[in-house]
Amino acid sequence: MSSPNMLTKFESKSSRAKGIAFHPKRPWILVSLHSSTIQLWDYRMGTLIDRFEEHDGPVRGIDFHKTQPLFVSGGDDYKIKVWSYQTRRCLFTLNGHLDYVRTVFFHHELPWILSSSDDQTIRIWNWQNLCTMTGHNHYTMCAQFHPKDDLIVSASLDQSVRVWDISGLRKKHSAPTSTSFEDQMARSNQNQADMFGNTDAVVKFVLEGHDRGVNWVAFHPTLPLIVSAGDDRLVKLWRMSETKAWEVDTCRGHFQNASACLFHPHQDLILSVGEDKTIRVWDLNRRTSVQSFKRENDRFWVIAAHPEINLFAAGHDNGVMVFKLERERPASAVYQNNLFHITKEKHVRSYDFQKNIESPSMLSLKKLGSAWMPPRTLSYNPAERSILVISPADGGTYELISLPRDASGAVEPTDTKRGSGNSAVFVARNRFAVFSQSNQQIDIKDLSNATTKTIKPPHGTTDIYFGGTGNLLIITPTSVVLYDIQAKKNISELAVNGVKYVVWSSDGLHVALLSKHNVTIATKNLEQVSTLHETIRIKSATWDDAGVLLYSTLNHIKYSLMNGDNGIVRTLEHTVYLVKVKGRNVYCLDRAAKPKVLQIDPTEYRFKLALVKRNYDEMLNIIKTSSLVGQSIISYLQKKGYPEIALQFVQDPQTRFELAIECGNLDVAVEMAKQLDRPKLWQRLSSEALAHGNHQVVEMTYQKLRNFDKLSFLYLSTGDQEKLKRMAKIAEHRGDMTARFQNALYLGDVQNRIEMFQEIDLYPLAYATAKAHGLEEQAQSILEASGFTEDQINIPSAGAAVTPPRPIVPTHKANWPTRAASSTVFEKALLGEVEGTSIEEPAANGYDDEDLLGDEAPAAAASGLGGDEEDDVGGWDMGDEGEADAEDDFVEVEGDEAGAGSSEADLWARNSPLAADHVAAGSFETAMQLLNRQIGAVNFAPLEGRFEEIYQASRTFLPATPNMPALVNYVRRTVNETDSRKILPIIPQDLESILAVLQTGKSAMVKNQLQDGVNVFKKVLHLLIINVVASQAELSEAKKAITTAAQYTLAMSIELSRRALVQGATDISGLPEDTRKRALELSAYFTVPELEGTHRSLPLSAAMNFANKNRQLNTALNFANALLDRTGNAKLKETARKIKTIAERNPADAIEIDFDQFADFEICAASYTPIYQGSASAACPYDGTKYHGKYKGTICKICEVCQIGAPASGLRLVG
Amino acid sequence: MDPYSPEGELINIHTAFHAGAYQQVLDFDTSSFSATNALPTQVLKLRSQIALGQASEVASSLAKESTPDLVAVRLLAENALGKDVLEEVKKLVEKEGQENLTVQIIGGILLEKAGETESALAVLSKHEGSLDAVALIVQIHLRQNRADLAAKEAQRARKWAQDSLLVNLAESWVGMREGGEKYQSAFYVFEELAQTAQSQSSHSLVAQAVSELHLGRLPEAEAALQQAIALNDNNADTIANSIVLNTLLGKKDEVQKLKAQLEGVDKEHRVLADWQEKKEEFNKAAQKYTPKFEVAA
User: Fold this and answer.
1) Which domain holds residue A630?
2) Localized where (chain A) (predicted)?
3) Residue A639 and residue A570 share a domain
4) pLDDT tens digits for B128-187?
5) B279/A430 CB distance under 8 A
6) In Å, how far is A475's CA from the nearest CA of chain B?
7) Do both A638 and A592 map to the same domain?
8) Could you tell me which residues come within 8 angstroms of residue A516 by beta carbon, excluding any fewer than 6 positions away?
9) What is the tens place of the pLDDT at every residue in A1092-1117?
């Protein structure tokens, strides 16, 4: 068996790799090369971390220390070097070997290094050579410590494998706890040297069996097994006990020298590599080949296993490859609150997210596919409670399996349906799609595994996934196609490379497409929403109910919003596969397929989501309740264009000022500017405020900046004359003539200007000004003052003087209409002024076009609300809406050979001997015949309701073709039956419900509502006359119910007749004697019918009291005794005892009544008189009530249906 | 191209029609449909109107039409109003029944309603690849209690029409007679229609409820019926099936109330007639026995 698809995780290119070591914790491997270099790789990231080059010539042995940042190497320069990868230096070198060093290994706990060398020795070192083991008489190729015991195993070209006992060495070097004389004696005795003067290590076993040199040998991690590989191309398995070791078996398959081998750390497998360019996997128990992988050109030299995770590395002529034997992604499916997954033992289990419990195994899939291949995917069908499992074995197989109702252990599935295919998913409750890669075909199958439709997918299709309502997602290497199964056409296509997994959001509106390094989010119509890139491999994803995608990489859980914003949620120590997120819990499966719950803090992405959805209440809530601060969120907000929200988080005035400017919040800006009071800030504020039209702020900033000119102009433009005048004054004070001139000009103050010109000796200008404004006198005086005459001056005519316009509206009193600030809604929300949640923004506030999600948000929110309640039924919509094209070779409908058939109702009558079934069939006549024969029924009037009920309940009306009357269908009680000879109708009011009715009758009796009770019991009798029961057990229950109902009816009828007789009086002394006698008799007869349990005490106590009151002390005494026997009721007992005491004094009856308590008799239900034994009597064939012989032939008073004493075969209720 | 095929523009309106979502059919925006589809669309809408109880409007609006399709619809409307149109139908079928699908189908309906099953099947057998006709044939076979013929007919259609709605429906109708696992399959089909917005109607909900009732899932059936009642509390089939359900649940008072309601909605519903007939049968059968209540003096 070969698998061309090895799950290669990493490959390096280099010269020949001779040694490999995995770091026990970090994703690192050391590779020692033939070229004398040692490389340290991060195989997860695929990067070379470091190189160590001090050896001279090939380096063959390499090992990481288990706990310290150390490693050891051994090379052809005879040297063993110990390195620190932290300081990146060789710490020290061990010299001693006299030839190439082949392997070096650290001891798992002692500070020892074990080396094997071509000098035929094996040596143990700490900082010096502790022990040299000699015995091999050729190169020793490999030597390894036992993982627990003080043993070493070695392999040599002398064709032997040796096991060495080094317990002596350990004793010698462990710190002595006591140095008693005995101890010393013991040690000195033990230290008796062998013939080489060597006592620390002794050969325990020599294993011979290889015909050529042995290249590699390894211990099993837990079992007493050894595996070796040799130049005889064989991999041999050995077993050892305390006293001996022997060869178990040989794995044959390599067709060149086998270079190295090892046991799988967790599974019963052996892995070996050879110069035949193959990696082979063997079944440890059967020694058969499980898998083999061949490389084109490179011979393999070495193989190593990661001690914990399912990873292996093999070194070959051109580098190293790191690979997995099997996929670790556990097959799983989530439905509502349940996760269904397949464990490493190939058991199907479920996990309840709400209760956080894992079910016991429900099924064992051991037999599915190959023993060593875990199932790849699982698809769950909630309606049928079945699963579809894909196994990669045999080129891909699927199996459709029903889950048992309750998890009762790992049972083998029964009734499975299977076929070949590479992917299989349910597309509707009764349909699933199977994709076969080899013939590029998708079959739509029904639950009986029959193909209903065949689809030709696009070329190069690699996988299929559920595509929402009646659709499939077809994955090709370069795109994803949404395919409508019904219409058989592509709906849309999205170009995404290398999609491997597809994850639907819980509302089915969005889908995440995961490829190795990309996550693409698309709508259900496959319109791309966003995409993001990760440098580290993406493993899995799941959707938050609010529409946030959480995904896991090798070492992080991250989130992505719809708009592509993403970030880290938490780091991971081990790879996990996310399956669901609920609140702060992330549910996932680890590599061992165990459900795990991880805690996360969703605040950040919730906040960002709320931001995107403009859900201000939610944001507010988050701001108030969580400590969401920090530069990252602020810069995020700023970057995303939400400075006004960022403003809420910031304390630093400078930043606040910047943000306030950015979002146009002038109040905050002013406040901050006042705090900081820096000209630069005022400057910025002034221009911003001007842009807003907020001239009051502008005014303030100009004042702060002492920007008089601008201030004046501002006052001019706002028409603030007062302030303008003040400006003029100020200008005067400052002696700033230009400013003074300007202000005067603004104010239209001619006088001031003239004065000013005069002050600064600009008489010509003063004169011209005066002249221009027609101030002749003043002009004249100026002239005089300067000594000119009018003729000497030549003034150009300049028309009339202009006065500045007067402001019409005092706009300085209020601000101009200002530009709206963008913060309004959020700030109002902050201030608690807005009640609603996501309020649509007015268009003016600046961020209406910027996010695409704006439109989607409400929808997503809405569906988020509806979320979990509605199950995924919508998603199951197969979309069977439509008709396919009519084909040309349409077959003409044949005329039917015969006319109408018989209806199902007719079958019922044929199939059953029970009256009820005949009633349902509508065959009332035969039903009556049956009842007459069985129980002598003759009076059917009381049963009319029952007939009607049964008939009515068995016919439904199915609307079919429009404009046609509904189709009548026949309701069955044999729901699962299809054999027309066995189908039977449903009969309303089954035994169970009748027994409940019976109970209400009894309680009516207890409550002394006798007439109601009689009605109820008669109803019970009428229900049971026409009915069916399922079994003999039920039949006897039914019969008992009939008797009970009859006896209660009788008892209550007697009592009712007594009450009618005495008209409710308890004292009957005033009545005629025969009436009194009859009343007393009836009272006594009331006690005769068989009532149940405690109910018997009711008539007894009534009769006792009644007799006592009427001085029938003997009778009262009898009843009191009977009552004392029967009742457990303390109160009744008390009364009974009292009456007994009284009655015993004089046990005599005033009136002789016809009641012999010691005789065995029954009461006639018609006359309410005793029927003593021997007298003629007749019974009702249905309820068994007794009558005096003379009533024979009349209708039973209890059931009111049957003829007393009629010949009858007995009621049938079971078919 | 078949306008009812998945690619055709009539697919959705046709689906709604067969799901009994008549109001949706009437509300359908058909303005963009091509001219060739105008007549079929009109026929669907008119039939929906009749189904909604607006037969008299339809009849009067078509009084002067001579297009055979519309004549057929008029006859259907008049039949719904209680007129005897059998002779006219026969004439129309004889004249146009060879080619005209609408005439075939409506002719089939009217002939079957009049009890002329043989002629109904004969005219329907002339159809050329119409699933409407197939479905009707299946229904007629079922009315004949010939589930075997109905199943054969549906199976034949399945071969060329694959997973079409009408094939699924027809199979489901047959399944409701066959029982066993077929009940569940039928339920899936009905429920799918009933729970999809475009095809949700009292018609489809009642179908769902009926299948649940047959499956013995009374609470679910009750829920579906209540949904149907919420949509339309005047649908005779809904009420008739509610009576069945309440009978099974043992709610006698509710049954009496519903019966009264049904009489108000559709006095001539066959259920009422059937029950009345059975009542008489009961009395007749009961009279054969002469109960004696008292001992002869």
Assistant:
1) 619-797+806-813
2) Cytoplasm; Golgi apparatus membrane
3) no
4) 888 889 999 999 999 888 888 888 888 888 888 777 888 889 999 999 988 888 898 899
5) no
6) 24
7) no
8) A498, A500, A537, A538
9) 877 888 888 888 888 888 888 888 88
